[in-house]
């Protein structure tokens, strides 16, 4: 049993064909098939079973894969730690973040960090909230930047800033000429929302409940950019993160209105696995992110 065979087993278990996994390992498909068979003999159980044209994990394979994932993650982190001892200014930061933060916050933080640590490399993953948590739990990311504390017992979360939410309405809307409105004033109108499972969806529903109503779903999307487009088309209203200036994308005839009857905002924070030791580069990035956003946090001087 060697690490490359374990990596190939992991790849096949995660959905690659044996041919694809063999190409990744730069060996022939028959050679990988024999290696996987030897692995099953060493473990003493059938790990993969052919279903149609693909291999699927057996019950024993699912149990074994948990330990393979942990073993490979521990080995990779060990290599990273040694590399950073040899060269403290090098290293990798694997960062997962919300789609909506990829246009402003994440580029700003990464750029500022690399100015001080130009040799550090970043692995970036975009996802919605549930996907971000899975990245951390599966150890495929060191850190995540997301909205709100996920409230998971294995995850440590620190607030970076509070991001305003604005009511987006089309320019021809009855309220478009105003700068400030009560959210309750649009209680009877269709809302353009992200799909269930996205943090902004939960925040919107909570703010609407605070305003005394449940949002009437007009359309659902997977990106804030889509919400803006649907609002601009006159299909409903939406709560959009960031300031009007930052959100005023050319081509979208939208007005952004301040909400006065509820606190229109969401927390943005950085998180990591509580019990997992972080290499130096991710630890330095946490400090950098907290320092760079300190002035935007509640109570800042």
TrEMBL record:
Q: Which Pfam families match?
A: HTH_1, LysR_substrate
InterPro entries, A to Z: LysR_HTH_N (IPR000847), LysR_subst-bd (IPR005119), WH-like_DNA-bd_sf (IPR036388), WH_DNA-bd_sf (IPR036390)
Q: Tell whether Iron-sulfur is among the UniProt keywords.
A: no
Give a yes or no for keyword Protein biosynthesis in this entry: no
Sorted keywords for this record are: DNA-binding, Transcription, Transcription regulation
Q: Where is the HTH lysR-type domain?
A: 1-58
PROSITE patterns reported in the protein's UniProt record: HTH_LYSR (PS50931)
Q: Belongs to which family?
A: Belongs to the LysR transcriptional regulatory family.
**This protein's name:** LysR family transcriptional regulator
Q: What is the lineage of its organism?
A: Bacteria, Bacillati, Actinomycetota, Actinomycetes, Kitasatosporales
């Amino acid at each position: 049993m060697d690490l490359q065979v374990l990596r190939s087993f992991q790849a096949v278990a995660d959905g690659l064909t044996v041919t694809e996994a063999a190409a990744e390992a730069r060996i022939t498909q028959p050679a990988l098939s024999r290696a996987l068979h030897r692995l099953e003999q060493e473990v003493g159980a059938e790990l993969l079973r052919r279903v149609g044209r693909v291999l699927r994990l057996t019950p024993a394979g699912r149990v074994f894969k948990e330990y393979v994932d942990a073993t490979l993650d521990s080995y990779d982190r060990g290599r990273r730690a040694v590399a950073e001892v040899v060269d403290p200014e090098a290293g990798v930061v694997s960062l997962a973040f919300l789609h909506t933060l990829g246009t402003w916050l994440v580029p700003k933080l990464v750029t500022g960090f690399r100015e001080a640590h130009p040799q550090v490399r970043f692995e970036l993953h975009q996802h919605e909230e549930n996907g971000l948590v899975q990245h951390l739990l599966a150890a495929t990311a060191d850190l995540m930047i997301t909205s709100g504390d996920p409230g998971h017992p294995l995850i440590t979360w620190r607030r970076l800033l509070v991001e305003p939410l604005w009511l987006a309405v089309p320019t021809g809307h009855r309220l478009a000429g105003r700068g400030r409105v009560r959210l309750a004033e649009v209680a009877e109108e269709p809302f353009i929302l992200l799909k269930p499972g996205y943090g902004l969806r939960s925040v919107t529903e909570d703010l609407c409940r605070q305003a005394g109503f449940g949002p009437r779903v007009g359309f659902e999307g997977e990106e804030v950019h889509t919400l803006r487009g649907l609002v601009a088309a006159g299909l409903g209203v939406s709560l959009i993160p960031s300031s009007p200036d930052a959100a005023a994308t050319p081509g979208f005839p939208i007005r952004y209105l301040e909400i006065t009857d509820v606190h229109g905002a969401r927390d943005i924070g950085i998180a990591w696995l509580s019990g997992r030791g972080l290499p130096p580069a991710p630890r330095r990035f946490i400090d950098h992110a907290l320092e760079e956003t300190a002035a935007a946090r509640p109570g800042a001087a």
